[in-house]
Amino acid sequence: MIPFNKPPYLGTEEQYVLEAMHQSKISGDGNFSLKCQKWFEDKTKTKIALLTTSCTHALEMSALLIGLKEGDEVIMPSYTFVSTANAFALRGAKIVFVDIRPDTMNIDENKIEQAITSRTKAIIPVHYAGVACEMDTIMDIANRHNLVVIEDAAQGMMSTYKGRALGSIGHIGTYSFHETKNYTSGGEGGVIFINDDKYLDHAEIIREKGTNRNQFFRGQVDKYTWVELGSSYLPSELQAAYLYAQLLDADTINKDRLSSWNYYYQQLKPLQDQAKITLPIIPKGCIHNAHMFYIKTKDIQERTALLRYLKEQDILCVFHYVPLHSSTAGLKFGTFHAEDSFTTKESEAIIRLPMYYSLTQETQNKVIKYVSKFYQQIT
Ligand SMILES: *Cc1c(COP(=O)(O)O)cnc(C)c1O
């Protein structure tokens, strides 16, 4: 059986986790957490990186940070993971979904401005498959309308837009270290990037249960107490140690994934040339991280047939997402602005092929062979 995903694992994680277990402090913000945070600050040029228990929590932290209130509106694509919307709906915000571009499956930057109202507070671009949204346009719109930009870069670690790390461009950015992402902190985890000075102090407080504990430890206040709404968003040192091992070898993982991605692309190119499938598009100025390899079929019927066929060959492929505006909660907490020209249609055509660190060419050959065979059979 060819799995769809394998959690990234190098072998060096054990040594670091063991070391963490023997530290006198194993709760959040210990040695390994600080090392990881420093790594992200150096690598991405964000002002402050703070590890979180998940990307979902990093997004929830963002919603608290920007002081979102009941009735405020946030703009995002409908084609995204649940957490992107849920984090803001939790604070009573209305979710305004905007259509995607068919080439990258990212929010269509040219449809954002018409969705802005006097209640709009934030734009949440999602960098699908680790391929950047058109951030120059998005930041320009946000600046002109005085809106906050929170990048959901859950899939975007190691990717760049015009040389800048994803997550470091908006006012706030988030990554995920869930086991399905390119790097993991042992199954679950995330990080929040604070790129705008005005959120620095609040971020620390919100992440520490709404207390000024960090200021107290630095001797800036003489007692620590409850100062605002927050929660507990710190991962343990064991998780940070697991992640740290992978950060030290970040390029190894990235190169390996990119080479698998390029191999799929090369080998499946003939099918695209015959107009049978569509391959992913990486716009100029974007360097991606091979987070996923997807192909697009003609329509949902063809996709269902291909998925079934591959499963019969013991190859597990998946699709996602059910557009949020048509989900039960999406109908309750959001509305789709203007026309859904591409969100539903394009989301029904996507199949994600097996993609993980240490995927072998032999395994890829099997996947490629059966995808090709399927298209020979139906024509
Ligand atoms: C994975 C993912 C998340 C959630 O990440 P967790 O760390 O599992 O909470 C959010 N947004 C997007 C786009 C994702 O792909």
Named once each, the bound ligands are: pyridoxal-5'-phosphate
The separation of the N and C termini measures: 27 Å
The CATH superfamily of the largest domain is Type I PLP-dependent aspartate aminotransferase-like (Major domain)
How would you describe the oligomerization state of the chains in this entry? Answer: single chain
What proportion strand?
5-15%
In total, the number of strands is 13
N-to-C SSE string, H for helix and E for strand: HHEHEHEEHEEEEEHHHHEEHHEHEH
Structural class by helix and strand composition: alpha/beta
CATH-defined topology of the largest domain: Aspartate Aminotransferase, domain 2
Report the uncertain regions.
none
Mean pLDDT equals 97
In CATH, the architecture of the largest domain is 3-Layer(aba) Sandwich
Shape: globular
Counted by DSSP, the helix tally is 13
Strand order of the main beta sheet, please?
A: 1-9-8-5-4-2-3-12
Count of the domains: 2
Percentage of residues in helical conformation: 25-40%
Rg from C-alpha positions? 21 Å
Query: What is the CATH C level class of the largest domain, in words?
Result: Alpha Beta
Task: Report the biggest beta sheet as strand number plus sense, adding barrel if it closes.
Answer: 8 strands, mixed
